[in-house]
Amino acid sequence: MDNKLECLAKDEDIVLYRMQTEGKVCTLIASTPETRSICNDPTVAGIAYTSRLRMACAKVLKAGGAFLPLVEDEIVVINILRGGLNFGLRDALHEAYGWNNHTTCFISAQRARNTSNPEEWHITENAYRKVYFPRKTSLVIGDVVATGTSLSYALDELLRTALEAGTRLKSILFFTFGGPKALEILEKVDAECRLRFPGYQQTTLVYLEGCFEVPDLSSPLSIRLTGTDLVRYKAIMAPEFVTSQYANPAYPIERCIIYDAGSRAFWVREFAADVYDYWKQVLDLADRGVTFEQYLKERFPEIEADKFGQMSLKDVALGQLAKMKPFIP
Question: Is the per-residue pLDDT at 1 higher than 60?
Answer without folding.
Answer: no
